[in-house]
Amino acid sequence: MSSQHQYMSVNNTPSARIGDIEHISHLSEHIGSLCLSSEYSDVTLIVEGQRIPAHKVILAASSDYFRALLYGGMRETNQAEVELQAPLQAFKALLRYVYSGHMGLSMLREDTVLDMLGLAHQFNFQELETAISDYLRQVLALRNVCSVLDAARLYGLKALMDYCYNFLDKNAIDVLQHDTFLQLSVEALQGLLERDSFFAPEVDIFKAVCNWFNANQLWVKSEAGQAQIEKILKCVRLTLMTLEELLTVVRPFSLVTPDMLLDAIQEKTQTKSTELRHRGLLLPEENVATPKRGARVISGDMRSALLDGDTETYDMERGYTRHTITDAADNPGIIVRLATATILNYIRLLLWDRDNRSYAYYIEVSVDQKDWVRVIDHSNYFCRSWQNLYFEPRVVQYIKLVGTSNTVNKVFHAVALEARHTWRVPPLRGGLVEPLHNVATVDLSAVVIEGISRSRNALINGDTENYDWDQGYTCHQLGSGAIVVQLAQPYLLSSIRMLLWDCDYRHYSYYVETSLNNWDWEMVCDRTRESCRSWQVIYFKPRPVSIIRIVGTNNSVNEVFHLVHLECPAQVEDARDDPAAKKQRPAHDNALNPAGNVSVSQPGLQGLRGPRVPARQWAARAARAAGPGPPPRRAPVAARRSAPVAAACRPQRPPPRPRRGMIIERATSPVPFYLLYYLQHSERNRLT
């Protein structure tokens, strides 16, 4: 029997650890019995004229407010009776919480719960304040949302206030017709009317405001009310009403002056609809461009494909919506009509990407299909595959895609489109994303369009550990070709980080260029006269970048430039912060001279330092430094590599054991010219 007791607590419940005793419930019960009891009481609290016995030490232990009041040297510290300004019923409930740690909010009236929220805020019970706020979110309804909103504004509870506003946004029409709307405070009413997401017909909003004025006549006739009436009426967007509504509904209302009415009519007739401040439906993080939400394509060929949600089963014959690319300014493009005016700031677009073609395009939005505003302009940038497009939040009902270029033909192909409002917006500058994380990745639709590798996207797969003499790098022949990476869309970049192949002590020289269209290039880094190895961090002035080209100009061992990894922007604040960069050795430690020839009979050769080394060790160093052999003179597109070309880049095996006095030279095995010519022209024919 005793053996069982050591695994059980006194109340016969399993204990977390042997020997732990949990009697918290008994402690709460004992202290709770002192609540509202004069036994051991040392202070009397006076609330609404009623005397309530209490205990200083319990109050001070539960709240900083009471600790400062009763033990902080204030006047009340030495008083036997302390008067507090608080509602009686709510204060008694608060005392029961202080003494027992328990409160049943569902058993209290809603007005008492709101009073409890005020007391928790006043007496600095932060955990209780948070718990009551969470409870009010759960029981929020039309009957209490306005009173909860007023309380949240009064106590500065922003999270609860935003939750109430979002509830009002989703139920705007019902709220306008509910009696609780008439109980809103002036500040809450004004804040609600200023929201673009409070989506209801403007004439209904105006009528509800008129009813609010009629229900608060005492305030309207007061001096403070007269000063606030015009501010409230300016929150009603008269320009969104029709002329008939302005003349038949607004004009008879006495508080709207003739000048206000005439100004609204003038602004409505002389201003484009895109410049007016519209209201729209706000559905955060939800794609509204779906047939389920009532969206449909009203312009373009093969319309059903764009919004069907299929982003996998598309090919050259099906699975996309298209339009012909022309130079006409009124090109209808592809137009998507949403079910209702909606607040958007993010569009995700999938361009047809079954080959290496690139597109250029722009996106315009409208609320009436008459006046359009351009939110995305990539008409001069090469883009491919998935496009993640951000812009300032706007009220939108029509989305128009217009292609301006296709590197293969004169047709613009869009596979899928999503439209939503998101709170996760990256930094934007000049309409372009200024990324914080690496965008040269396969997941973000970047691709290597030139360079030789066993794996097409080895350069951008994020692997910086698993590379050796045979795999894990991308290369090109010095003096011919380059390594070119295309990003999915233009980004505003200011840094690039690269990893040069560093399995031995060789060093490289290179330069880096960027482009937006694959024919106009700007150099961002020139290290053709430097000896570089391992990790490279490049900084330059921020600029739009769609394509990155790395051109090697020297390899201290052979005629091939090898690159293991590329990322942009650089994912280190400084090269000194990069742990991998700390491991790289200086270029003068290279085991071979720039010519690539080493004689084992001469211990004092160029590039070698230290004591004499046995001939066998010289041979081993020479074999290791031979490195990846030269690729074909012109590197074909990485996506169209063939086995013979890839084999040309494969690192060579160590040469035979040398004889004493023998000169070890770098072995070369270039691809035969007739094979290279056949591979290049067969690939070109297949691509065109």
Automatic annotation (TrEMBL):
<feature type="compositionally biased region" description="Low complexity">
    <location>
        <begin position="635"/>
        <end position="651"/>
    </location>
</feature>
<dbReference type="InterPro" id="IPR052407">
    <property type="entry name" value="BTB_POZ_domain_cont_9"/>
</dbReference>
<dbReference type="GO" id="GO:0048512">
    <property type="term" value="P:circadian behavior"/>
</dbReference>
<dbReference type="InterPro" id="IPR008979">
    <property type="entry name" value="Galactose-bd-like_sf"/>
</dbReference>
<dbReference type="Pfam" id="PF07707">
    <property type="entry name" value="BACK"/>
</dbReference>
<dbReference type="GO" id="GO:0008344">
    <property type="term" value="P:adult locomotory behavior"/>
</dbReference>
<dbReference type="Pfam" id="PF00754">
    <property type="entry name" value="F5_F8_type_C"/>
</dbReference>
<protein>
    <recommendedName>
        <fullName>BTB/POZ domain-containing protein 9</fullName>
    </recommendedName>
</protein>
<dbReference type="GO" id="GO:0050804">
    <property type="term" value="P:modulation of chemical synaptic transmission"/>
</dbReference>
<dbReference type="InterPro" id="IPR000210">
    <property type="entry name" value="BTB/POZ_dom"/>
</dbReference>
<dbReference type="Pfam" id="PF00651">
    <property type="entry name" value="BTB"/>
</dbReference>
<dbReference type="GO" id="GO:0005737">
    <property type="term" value="C:cytoplasm"/>
</dbReference>
<dbReference type="InterPro" id="IPR000421">
    <property type="entry name" value="FA58C"/>
</dbReference>
<feature type="compositionally biased region" description="Low complexity">
    <location>
        <begin position="611"/>
        <end position="627"/>
    </location>
</feature>
<feature type="region of interest" description="Disordered">
    <location>
        <begin position="574"/>
        <end position="660"/>
    </location>
</feature>
<dbReference type="InterPro" id="IPR011333">
    <property type="entry name" value="SKP1/BTB/POZ_sf"/>
</dbReference>
<feature type="domain" description="BTB">
    <location>
        <begin position="41"/>
        <end position="107"/>
    </location>
</feature>
<dbReference type="InterPro" id="IPR011705">
    <property type="entry name" value="BACK"/>
</dbReference>
